[in-house]
Design goal:
about 450 residues; alpha+beta; Rossmann fold; Uridine Diphospho-n-acetylenolpyruvylglucosamine Reductase, domain 3; Phenylalanyl-tRNA Synthetase, Chain B, domain 3; six-stranded mixed β-sheet; 13 helices; 21 strands; globular
């Protein structure tokens, strides 16, 4: 294991690398490699660290990593996950983590987002998916690199074993901490890590190379299949609504039917297909064949499949919540399926974005549901207007009005009606402001 692992990537003085970095040996080994590479080419390196807030040692690890970043003059971006919902912990943490990484990449206009996933991680993922069932791409594990929103997500340690990483850390005196939760058998991945991988490595010390070959062959076949799938997909599904005619779908070859459904599901689960198995695909196919005119099927993480006569669709379920009140931090997942986030910069000027001066409102800002009698002072208008009337004028369905987010300050003054109206507190881009909120 050496700097040649980074030779596949372009480094120039204008290159920006955001490293998703824990304080574990994998991340710290990659951090060390990048620092060594920076001695050759003065590219910009940024560390993005997430405290999952599940262990007492997390705070100390954050402080140690931040101190190292300060010493080597690397910007340190940090977030702490304060609350979790009722979803699968690992999946929810992953979603929050990658959303944070995405924001950091956007802030620094990143060329690469690098993570320290390695060959042992790949073997664990492939084994778990073989046992659970998955799509062809799912069986292949995860990709070494792929393009994402203007930058590349890459995993330079993809072909390196955990043993190689630990040896590298020891040889180069790389500091790190061991997450003891990685040894708890309550987590499925840990059971593979403790039991199955040691057995396979005992049978063949280079077994990770066999898994890499398996991955490469499946991805090569999958690339061909995806071309055929995409032709059928775009003919079947028009626009962004994940809806199609069942009778038209049933004219497609059965193998491609499952591939189309997997592509639709990726809109909700991205490349994390651990939650979705082949069993779910067969349940969806069975749903379409049922004689009843109207049926639905609940999938993980509040995703719903609905059959209505000849129409099939996938959609996010809005939880049955009558009201909510959430203090706004950097990122808020709203019960209506949308996101409210606080940004450092943003060029957008639509009703999805507002710019506010903290000198004119009382903090903290809170996002909540509508209350009887809510009124807001609209930008550029005299007096106040009822929020209820605004929702009616905008033809917001009754079912959505009760959950529509309203941003207020600590006095209860409405400062933003996301997606619909800006208040008198909204500032032009040329004016003075220190808070940017975006609804999406």
């Amino acid at each position: 294991m050496n700097r040649s692992l980074l030779d596949a990537y372009t480094f120039t003085p204008s290159t920006v690398v955001v490293l998703g970095c824990s304080y574990g040996p994998d991340s710290m080994a990659l951090f060390h490699l990048l620092l060594e590479k920076r001695k050759e080419v003065p590219f910009q390196l940024v560390v993005a660290h997430v405290n999952h807030n599940k262990r007492r040692a997390s705070e100390k690890e954050k402080e140690q990593l931040e101190a190292i970043c300060k010493q080597v003059e690397v910007p340190f971006e940090y977030m702490k996950i304060e609350n979790y919902g009722e979803d699968n912990f690992h999946n929810e943490a992953r979603q929050i983590r990658y959303h944070f990484f995405e924001k950091v990449c956007e802030k620094y206009d990143a060329t690469y987002l690098m993570t320290a996933h390695h060959a042992d991680d790949l073997m664990e993922t492939i084994l778990m998916r073989i046992v659970r069932g998955a799509t062809l791409a799912g069986y292949a594990g995860f990709s070494k690199k792929f393009d994402y929103k203007g930058y590349q997500l890459v995993r330079p340690l993809y072909e390196v074993t955990k043993e190689d990483i630990l040896t590298y850390c020891k040889k180069n005196h790389v500091p790190y901490a061991i997450d003891k939760s990685n040894f708890q058998s309550v987590y499925t991945r840990n059971r593979y890590r403790k039991t199955v991988l040691p057995f396979l490595k005992k049978e063949d010390r280079n077994v990770h190379l066999r898994f890499l070959q398996f991955h490469d062959k499946l991805m090569e076949a999958n690339a061909f299949i995806e071309k055929e799938r995409d032709k059928a997909y775009h003919h079947l599904i028009q626009g962004e609504n994940l809806t199609f005619s069942i009778s038209q779908f049933q004219t497609i070859e059965p193998f491609l039917q499952k591939e189309i459904l997997a592509k639709m599901l990726s809109n909700f689960y991205q490349d994390d297909l651990v939650l979705i198995t082949e069993k779910h695909l067969y349940l969806l196919l069975d749903l379409m064949k049922r004689k009843a005119s109207s049926l639905s099927l609940q999938l993980p993480n509040e995703v719903e499949a609905v059959k209505s006569y000849d129409t099939f669709c996938l959609r996010k379920v809005v939880k049955s919540i009558n009201s909510y009140e959430i203090e706004i931090s950097s990122y808020v997942q709203l019960p209506n399926g949308h996101i409210l986030e606080q940004l450092e910069t943003c060029d957008e000027t639509s009703n999805n974005v507002t710019r506010i001066s903290s000198k004119e409102v009382k903090l903290p800002l809170v996002v909540r549901t509508r209350k009887i009698g809510d009124k807001m002072a609209l930008k550029g208008q005299n007096g106040h207007r009822k929020v209820k009337d605004i929702l009616i004028d905008k033809k917001i369905p009754i079912a959505e009005r009760e959950l529509w987010p309203i941003v207020v300050d600590a006095t209860g003054e409405i400062v933003f009606l996301p997606g619909l109206k800006k208040s008198k507190f909204d500032k032009k881009k040329s004016e003075s402001y220190d808070i940017i909120l975006r609804y999406q």
